[in-house]
Amino acid sequence: MKFNAYYEPKTVEECVQILSEQGSDVKMLAGGTDLVIRLRSRALKPKTVVSLNAIPELSEVSLKEDGLYIGAMARLMDVSKSELLTGAWKIVKTGAGNVSSMQVRNIATLGGNSCNASPSADTVPGLVVSGAIANIVGKNGNRSVLLEEFFTGPGKTVLADDEMLVSFKIPKYADKTGAVYKKYSIRGDTDIAIIGVAGKVTLNAQDEVVDVKIALGGVAPTVIRVPKAEALLSGKKLTDQLIEEAAVIASESCTPITDARATKEYRKEMVKVWVRHVLKDAAQEAQKN
Amino acid sequence: MSDCEKTNYIGKSVQRVDVYEKATGKAKYFEDYQVQYRDLLHVKVLRSPHAHAKIVSIDASAAEALPGVATVVKGSDPDIAWADIPYASSYYGNPAKDEVIWAGQAVVAVAAESIEIAEQALELVKVVYEELPYVVDQREAFKADAVSVTSPELGIAAGYGGVQPEGPNVMGSYKLTHGDVEKAFAEADVIVEEEYQAGKKSTSQIECNGSIVEYHEGGGVTIITNGCGVHGVVKNHILTMYPQLSSNKVRVIQPVTGGSFGNRLFPLVEPLAVLMALRTKRTVSYVLTRKEMYTSSPSNWPVYTKLKLGAKKDGTIIAEKLELVEDAGAQIRGYFDGRLSSSGLMCVYNIPNVQCDSYAVRTNTMPCAPYRGLGCAESEWAMENLIDVLAEKLDMDPLEIRLKNILKKGETNPYGEKVTSIGLGRCLEAVADAINIDEPCQQDGGPWKYGKGIAAAGKQNTPLGRAEADCLVHSDGSIELLVSCDEQGMGVQTTLRQMAATEFQIDIEKVKVTRADTAITPYDNFGASSRTTYTTGNAVIIACQDAIDQLKEAAGRKVGLAKKQVTIKNGKAYFVGSNIESIDIADLYEPFSFFTQQTWGLLKGTPVRGRGVFCPAPAVEWFGPGHEDGRTPRMWNWYQYSAFGAEVAVNEETGQIKILKLMSTADTGNPINPKLVEGQIDGGVIMALGFSIMDHHMFQDGKMMNPNMSDYRLPTTLETPLQKNFMRAILPDPLPDGPFNAKGMAESIMIPVGPAIAAAIYQAIGVRPTEMPMTAERVLKLIKDKEASDAK
Ligand SMILES: Cc1cc2nc3c(=O)[nH]c(=O)nc-3n(C[C@H](O)[C@H](O)[C@H](O)COP(=O)(O)OP(=O)(O)OC[C@H]3O[C@@H](n4cnc5c(N)ncnc54)[C@H](O)[C@@H]3O)c2cc1C
């Protein structure tokens, strides 16, 4: 692990300045739980490393008129315990709490989990179904991107060389909304997910589905939504049979690979199982919120 | 308590000698010695990305020119010791010459001033490969028309060592005929047959293999290593490979080490580090990375077994036919012929007619070495599963059929060996009882289904090897044992100390153990095959008795008595027939005097030295003319036994398995230190849970897909049952020739875990796994297949 320069900017502006000067030879360091491993294995050899750890504003979590803002540098441990994440937002807590062990969660960040752009990142499906927006700052100013559109492939995002993620905005949710994330892995949370399934369901007074979002992790180059299954469920009451049909559609619409964690066939089978559980649980949650 | 009872330490859970230093981090492992050397060079190795390829060219000039690089080693270098390895591919970790035969084999090695520089240098090396066909599946490799693991034009073809080749990759075979199997099958009322496979796995000890080689002016080396067997393995191999090093120029020290489980039974890092130290005349440190531990240090040998059993209606098993193939990986030479694995199918049940056809085959995968259990966990996987099938067909319960057929003391096993110690019956009864095998599990209607199962196991001990021990009686009356056995965490230093204290009838605090330094401690071969308690233990007892004898003689002379009138205990010599009752042992030593120091008698500061040498009785030939049936009255030494019972939950939606309750029992012979034995049981059970349900090598394009600890899934505490449901018991049958009637025990406990879980899965959900590990995916596939066939 060797690089020429290491910076610790105190403000976002200072950081963006460094990024724009260094071009593609720079890597940002958040918690480092993904980055340092790649530096040590020499998979990445940046000339410069910029730490985001001295920019206090990046760790803020605050409730505003238009939703909840979570700074990119919020540690997963803090997110997993945040009292601001109530109701249907609890799904973000669950995802953060599902990342590995306490030791990793103590240093890993929510922003890092997205920016690393792993298809099996545990916090992403929950953020996606919650309609999270990524707030980005670059040398040409700010922009906001729907998190769902933030990812362009495994390890790839829409961020330009001079841009950084500063926060997530999670919009408010309607009444009777339930959201559930389930991670499926062999050794519990210490394992990387074979698949992850997030579902958000909003019901009306008649218990018909007025809004539903399903996001799948670990089954495609990025976290994906399942529009076809969502369309099937919209406007209807969730019966066991309907849920089963949605699960089958979800399973058929993903394109997993075979890797050391599971074969593609097994992943598809597990999507079926866990979409079913997630939708049932989300509908139950919706009755509570 | 009488004095004698007080100093009888056998069967007492004396605290381990090394607990404090280990728990406080003071224990020094070999890597802790790096700081002593200011001139240290670090080694990094470029490894083959291909399962099989010809090395067309290697250009290492840029690496050699990189500042900070001290030396670069290629397989074609003239100073590489190929004398012991005539073939281009190396089992001993040195770079390959003409051809690479597995992905992970060393190709170029660099020693440099820092790890960074060494890694940078490797990136500058250009190797041109010509990829060749490969085979990683052992069943494919075994076929007569299989792709050859090695290129015939480059190396030795099959049949090395005089074995008749039965295919290009067959390394050897062992066959046994006992009775008349075909006739017995014809007489059987029930016949069952199935094929089983056990996978490739790594021992995964936390401390990676490595060593530091210090160069001495004049051409000698000191090797500080966590390798096994300072004398028998490391020193002997280095002397063979580097003839310029004479015996007095090689010193090997094994400091505190982590586990080995067989993985370090062959020198893997030492030969290359020695070569580099000799070249550079500097101290060299070579430590494998975790990835290299998986791709480049030995695995177990996977085993395929096709087994057929025939029984009478009353449950008596009368015929056994097995075809077994052990997969030795990418090795050219070796002792593999199927005999090691098939031994597991010869030692548990008394079957009068046995036909065993066992083989070893090469594949283009990481070469194997013994893995705790020596292939018996892999082969008995077949036997125990098939016995369960047989029991069902006969409508017998799994305990009854086993109790009926297991070997009894004094009986003869299929080899023709007389069984001298077997405590298996009690072991089986205890596990069945602990999990209430007769009481069916409650089902709760959810996706988790529940079931129970039991299995039995036996494991031979090697008759090979020799252990020496010195027993020093210091002039302060304290005892010091000098031994070279490995201490890989099992606690043998403590048990040897207990044996010595008991022999001397002395407070155990007065006994210390000095270990594993070829300059100081005498010969031992290696810590494997559960042999240390037995072999080194016997040598220690002999050494103690020799020292006691010398003390008796010295004490007798002091008071004018023959030595048989003298007893040594409590740090004193007691006399019969003298007006002096006793003398402190310390007082037998004359104080230093400038004028008397050359006279006879014991001298202060100079210990009495007792010597002990122990070799188990040698095996009796089973091959060659006159031995066509492969039988012999002595193939192995003694046998250790165990049984296992488990209650498990199987998830019908995902195929996942949870172990809810378990009981492991072990026939250890007379246990010297029960707590240490229990530690071995618990550790062994968890290790076996791992390879039974999760951990194994996975391959894609001839390469291991999961050479890291996040994808190579070892069990954690989360995968083991709660403390109160994790049970164990020691149920010994004393071994007549063991030290204080002990035998070794670390391996048999591994063996019945997988099959007991498989039996429980069958009870829970009606499918019978035949492949180990029983991963969630595999179990789910069986469930789906069953659903499909039930639907028809
Ligand atoms: C043992 C272990 C277990 C793990 N288990 C899991 C698991 O179960 N589930 C899971 O999802 N992940 C897991 N991970 C992966 C990792 O911990 C998470 O992805 C974590 O959230 C990454 O956050 P970080 O702050 O450590 O990111 P870093 O490693 O610091 O950064 C990751 C990447 O994002 C970039 N980056 C970080 N912050 C920003 C920013 N604000 N703007 C732009 N780019 C940025 C970095 O440059 C880098 O490329 C595991 C990792 C380890 C080591």
From TrEMBL, chain A:
Cross-referenced InterPro entries: CO_DH_flav_C, CO_DH_flav_C_dom_sf, Diverse_Substr_Oxidored, FAD-bd_PCMH, FAD-bd_PCMH-like_sf, FAD-bd_PCMH_sub1, FAD-bd_PCMH_sub2, Mopterin_DH_FAD-bd
UniProt domain FAD-binding PCMH-type: residue ranges: 1-175
Molecular function per GO: FAD binding; oxidoreductase activity
Domain of life, per lineage: Bacteria
UniProt EC number: 1.2.99.2
Keyword terms of this UniProt record: Flavoprotein, Oxidoreductase
Keyword Transport on entry: no
One matching Pfam family: CO_deh_flav_C
Major enzyme class: oxidoreductase
Name of protein: Carbon monoxide dehydrogenase medium chain
Lineage, uppermost ranks: Bacteria, Bacillati, Bacillota, Clostridia, Eubacteriales
TrEMBL record, chain B:
Start and end residues of each Aldehyde oxidase/xanthine dehydrogenase a/b hammerhead domain: 24-133
InterPro entries: Ald_Oxase/Xan_DH_a/b, Ald_Oxase/Xan_DH_a/b_sf, Ald_Oxase/xanthine_DH-like, AldOxase/xan_DH_MoCoBD1, AldOxase/xan_DH_MoCoBD2, AldOxase/xan_DH_Mopterin-bd_sf
Keywords, ordered alphabetically: Oxidoreductase
A GO MF term: iron ion binding
Enzyme nomenclature, EC number: 1.3.7.9
Name of the protein: 4-hydroxybenzoyl-CoA reductase subunit alpha
Protein's organism: Acetobacterium wieringae
Name of the coding gene: hcrA
